[in-house]
Sequence to fold (1302 residues):
Amino acid sequence: MEQQNQLLRRQLSISQNQLIQAWGNEGEDGAEKIGEGTGTGEQGATKCKEKEFGVPKCEVLHIAIVCAGYNSSRSVVTLLKSLLFYRRNPLHFHMIADAKAQVVLHALFSSWNVPHVEVSFYLTDNLAADVSWVPNKHYSGVFGLMKLTLNKALPQTLKKVIVLDTDITVATDIAELWNLFSKFGPKQYIGLVENQSDWYLGKLWKSHRPWPALGRGYNTGVILIRLDIMRQSNWSQKWKLIAERDLTTLFSTQLADQDIINAVIKQHPEIVYNLPCQWNVQLSDNTRSELCYLEVTDLKAIHWNSPKKLKVKNKHVEFFRNLHLTFLEYDGNLLRRELFGCNHSRSVIVPNPLSQLNEEDECYEFRRARQTNYRTHLFFLDNEYDPTPDGFDVTLVATLSMDRLQMVEQLLKHWDGPVSLTLYMSDAEAQQFLSYTQSSEIIASRKNVAYHVVYKEGVIELIHLFRNLVICKVMTTLNTSFKVSIQLFSLQAWIVPAFETQRYRLSFPRSKAELLNRLDMGELFTFRYHVWTKGHAPTNFAKWRTATTPYKVTWEQDFEPYIVVRKDVPEYDTRFVGFGWNKVSHIMELHVMGFDFIVLPNSFIVHMPHAPSLDIAKFRTSPQYKRCVKILKREFVDDLNRKYNSDISLQ
Amino acid sequence: MEQQNQLLRRQLSISQNQLIQAWGNEGEDGAEKIGEGTGTGEQGATKCKEKEFGVPKCEVLHIAIVCAGYNSSRSVVTLLKSLLFYRRNPLHFHMIADAKAQVVLHALFSSWNVPHVEVSFYLTDNLAADVSWVPNKHYSGVFGLMKLTLNKALPQTLKKVIVLDTDITVATDIAELWNLFSKFGPKQYIGLVENQSDWYLGKLWKSHRPWPALGRGYNTGVILIRLDIMRQSNWSQKWKLIAERDLTTLFSTQLADQDIINAVIKQHPEIVYNLPCQWNVQLSDNTRSELCYLEVTDLKAIHWNSPKKLKVKNKHVEFFRNLHLTFLEYDGNLLRRELFGCNHSRSVIVPNPLSQLNEEDECYEFRRARQTNYRTHLFFLDNEYDPTPDGFDVTLVATLSMDRLQMVEQLLKHWDGPVSLTLYMSDAEAQQFLSYTQSSEIIASRKNVAYHVVYKEGVIELIHLFRNLVICKVMTTLNTSFKVSIQLFSLQAWIVPAFETQRYRLSFPRSKAELLNRLDMGELFTFRYHVWTKGHAPTNFAKWRTATTPYKVTWEQDFEPYIVVRKDVPEYDTRFVGFGWNKVSHIMELHVMGFDFIVLPNSFIVHMPHAPSLDIAKFRTSPQYKRCVKILKREFVDDLNRKYNSDISLQ
Fold:
């Protein structure tokens, strides 16, 4: 076995060298031939040859990716990170996306704001008609066939494109792959790597009947397409005719676009250019991929095309997994690197607002945080939310960081309505969060919870900033009796009275009567009773005890109740990042706008104790922080009075 | 200004091209000359030329680094990570280290266990005599001169070595630098990059008198040394004579070894080979480094040689900082990648114990965790600990993860004796921890606290494992009255009675009387009174109330008190990673060994409430976890009975 293996490696090595030789002779650009070295010299020479044909500096490389649904939108990010990590050219991504993926990826790219990256979107809805008639047994459904439409979907001016599946991780500069376009013969317009499984050889099981293919066939996880020639060759008509013919006997595709592309190639072998196998190392089970890479340097692109993904069996899977994890955990913010040799490119250099800040300013860190464009991944997990027909359902909105994660389950137990949770996390933490949700039955069973990830900024600043954008209140659990259907008018804020326990093991009071009883027993307190009475005093807890109908209360300074409002309410003021005055300023603005504050008589919140966060600890000790919050308060009130022509004065 | 800048860039570009040309002509190995391209082709050709001279596959590259003290041992790790990330050859590190650094780095490398990496240590104590006579004003002190002794320190058989400062980050495969040895002329034995500041030009300030140097002089942050030729040239004698001569007028070195090496080169310019400036891009203020890199691809090695480090002013500092942060935060475990093309090298392949585990085993995750070699960074922060003369001081030992970090300050307030804290963290978290300690006055003021980092394993497994190696107990604060000098005999365990509060804002009881008073008031409880009485029942709290002298108690099953023992006590059994039975099994072993359990009458611990950790949450819900703990318990007791010939039976 081991011997046979070595023999295979040796054979492969010989044939690869022959390939190198062939490339050398085939030179189309008049470059001189490189002398053949011996031993390792040959390796060097290959690279040389590739580099020599090189991609012009700052040339834009075009990459098309089909991406549908929330889960693919999440996994494609690892591919994007690996591409951006190694790239040295401007990139233009062409995202063939469904509506869900487009929302996610549009927000991601625009908040990520990577220099020298452009993105175009093509909605799959507009392309589906061309492929939806093909019966497809593959789990990818209609999206698995989208790659067949690229000649029509992508701009007519675009001549060359690299097409990648979302489950690819690259291990080198993608320009090396782009380089291979220069090797295409005049009739070749599709570059592919041979399939590394025996699928197309047939007979994997008794009734196994694969689509026709040349030998082992080709894998379509990585494709180089010369779109200009493809269009000239009448691609759309060509694949349709062949698919129709084969469907008469095979009834449906099994591996989606790959079956059809292989059937076309079987009939027109002249269109295909064979890519070196290192550009699509396929890690499914029973793969021959091991024959492909003799050395680490050979690995160019890993294709996680097994349904087992990272758990696939492979001799070197630890190596591949490490590469994948590298980018999974990689802080995407670090990829916002300028290709400073390419500033003459089309992209307009937007003046950096940060550069206009004064580092000597006492509030520099706050102002910087406010200006920071936080990379945002909307709908990190799959979710579905159907608004109630009357349009009056109430969404619980909260922000949290990693240290509050264990409260999510508890929250969901108390609130079965829609929830919007924003998670302030690092890339690595987001992966931990993902694992956590996958192991939680409660979380898995809820489809009406949207999780949005706002990525933390770099490690070094982290501790010095205070950037829970909206204060963390997942610790707060709402009683379900709140979900009476309330009709909100636009200038109304309904107040949910807030209580707290200082004990850990709380059984949540099931009724207002039980709550009042335990309040009297000293087990519960009104919220922040011991440290900051002003924040909730206007709620008038004495009146609430006996209230059976909603009652209006009067705003006072420092009032910060939890409220239910229409979603068109003004947003929080971002100058108050972190701990301090964010709720207070928000309530103040509502007051100035003329909102009525109405207390709900039968609803309540109980705040659970939690260890002080590092940010709060910081707040308590830093005089600079306190001075700065004071300055920001003054600025906020001035802006508010100007905007609404009001006359709030700080006490 | 901008125009001038462009002019400079153009000039530089021309001269670099001339350099390339020169290399091409100078070819020593008979390789054919590569045709000159136009524009970007030239860039390609350079790389080609380098690659063509290439380092033989799997050749071991030797890298020497001088590293002294705890802080350097920490910062060198980022350099090591960047080297390992890009390398494709086996590496042999030669660490010239003081005793402190050697302890840290030895433990780090052996727990890191990176394939195809060898490490040798050379104690600076043995080399100091050769350089300590040189007066040095540079903050690096005697260590700053160590590089002068490499010809003697390193093995006589070693012919070539790359020498790097700890504040370097590399941005490409170090083999590219190693390649440049082949360009050395016969008399050249030291390869250096020109200094990028005006220091050696003199007159930076009125009385500024630098050491003699050729032009701007050379920077010694990156050195290529041909040790064989250096030795033949009588290096030791040479530098000493020149240093003695210059010291008669200059009195001391200002930039340590760099001054002396420059003085030697001034007199013997034939020994130096000029490295391309991209191999030592110096980021000090007022640097000319910007002239060095025209494009991203040019950057090979960044030298953070400003005292301002990451805060240095530089037009592209964000780019450099991102590169540095990439490796600062990078999960070092991912660098344990095998260079599978090089398995014929010297390093012996140790059979992986993990491969002997059965993945179907219900306890697979536990057994795997036990076998895992956790990368460990001892003494992550500077510290000094002087044992008391009588040898009877008590060290508080605890383990914690990131979510307990804010308790460290509180702990240190209650315990001013020596502390050993083991932090279970990711690389990124360790950097957050570092920032946190730097902003904490309490932590900064304590020198008798040792912080050891045990790095977490990969993200994906994290949630599925339970690996607080020793249960987190930083939440527990000890009263200071405990520090009576107690003399411990070898078979004694002193028990510190444990209480708990369910409230957050605890003012710590200052005396036993106050504690008892608050116990009666219902503010405090005996530890885990509500959920797990058995764990501490044998302590006999009723007796403790009135005790004024130590008293012996009898061991019972499930007893898990906090204890004070001699440090030669057996270690925890690592099969109980995470939450569950680790303390219980340890106390059981002490019992079987014949330990007496003696309760301290005037000491106590108060446990503070904390949110349940994710691991505990997991424990409470996973039936598999519970089953597995049961199996492990059984195995432990069987092993124990076998080892001590005892007859413990599980109830």
In short: The two ends of chain B are 84 Å apart (CA to CA). Chain B touches chain A through 80 residues (CB under 8 Å).
